[in-house]
Design a protein that fits this description.
Strands 1, 2, 3, 4, 5, 6, 7, 8 and 9 form a nine-stranded mixed beta sheet that branches. A hairpin with a 4-residue loop joins strand 8 and strand 9. The chain has one domain: Hypothetical protein, similar to alpha- acetolactate decarboxylase, domain 2 (60s Ribosomal Protein L30, Chain: A), CATH 3.30.1330. It is mainly beta and 140 residues long. The protein starts with 6 loop residues before the first strand and ends with a strand.
Length: 140
């Protein structure tokens, strides 16, 4: 286990911009506010999304494109550094109008219809993601 203790920093609550990429919204906010480490949650709706399931043996993501309106039943994520840049990493549970649900790693090009968020800045040394050959993932 890797563990660090952070002090709580600023707390932000806001509305996500219509027709913007969800992950990019969080990355832009953090660049603007100088945030290098944070956790966030969101609720709302998307017009489309790309989710992934990590195939552990093959060390790659299997993605699914959901190109229709979706409700965000749950979304949580974090902000860290990868290749010297702010990176938003999130997982989501999404549902359609019939209650069917999809869950997984949220990829870019997941477009906001409407959304609200809470972001907690974490003060301390920001964690940087590096390639982990054992898992094939970029981890802290």
């Amino acid at each position: 286990m890797k563990l660090a203790c952070f002090d709580p920093g600023r707390r932000f609550m806001g509305r996500l911009s219509h027709e913007c990429d969800l992950l990019e919204e969080f990355e832009q906010l953090c660049r603007k506010e100088g945030i290098r480490c944070a956790v966030f949650t969101a609720i709302g709706a998307l017009t489309r999304a790309t989710l992934g399931f990590y195939q552990q043996e093959q060390k790659r993501y299997h993605t699914i494109e959901l190109d229709f309106p979706l409700e965000i039943a749950s979304l949580s994520g974090n902000i860290s550094i990868k290749d010297g840049k702010i990176m938003a990493h999130a997982h989501a549970v999404l549902s359609d109008e019939n209650g069917r649900s999809w869950a997984g790693h949220l990829f870019p090009n997941s477009t906001i219809f409407a959304g609200e968020f809470f972001l907690q800045e974490l003060v301390g040394e920001a964690w940087e993601r590096r390639f982990d050959p054992q898992t094939g993932l970029y981890l802290w």
